[in-house]
């Protein structure tokens, strides 16, 4: 299957996680057509998602502590918004020991369905085919509505920590239809290539 090429949906520095350049399925599952999904974690000027403290190792943290929380998310392609969610609250971030407890509850979130996993999201049906899915967006940050046309680079939302997320980040995947329960996964690239896990991507404004 031919990959769909996108623009990066952000500017500044982001850490790549769960890249399909390293393995497929990238997230260890084919659930909800996520075989080629990729995650991006926003970084500060020091290359960190947030300063790490002793408290971080033992207690959940407010998402506002992470400098990427609320960072603008851009449309990665021309198209039309075909599905949105904007009402899921951002929850605490989990690093260190709290992340273990959170991981143990993931099966329950998966069983609850797509809405529980994706949090706040935008689906963009590309003009050239395929549907781009952007997830874990900030509560009530969406700037688009269903049926609205968007252009590449347009600000559509902000980075959040909704859904199945241990810290503020952006999840991106491409599917062949807007019916996430029955869609097929589609490979994706950014500017003709695909970054690998733990690579830092820097996009100038």
From TrEMBL:
**SUPFAM superfamilies hit by this protein:** Duplicated hybrid motif (SSF51261)
Tell me the organism: Zhihengliuella halotolerans
UniProt cross-references to Pfam families, sorted A to Z: Peptidase_M23 (PF01551)
Q: Which GO terms describe its molecular function?
A: metalloendopeptidase activity
Q: Which Gene3D superfamilies match?
A: Glucose Permease (Domain IIA) (2.70.70.10)
Q: Where is the M23ase beta-sheet core domain?
A: 111-175
Q: Which InterPro entries match?
A: Cell_wall_metabolism_enzyme, Dup_hybrid_motif, M23ase_b-sheet_dom
Q: What is this protein called?
A: Peptidase M23-like protein
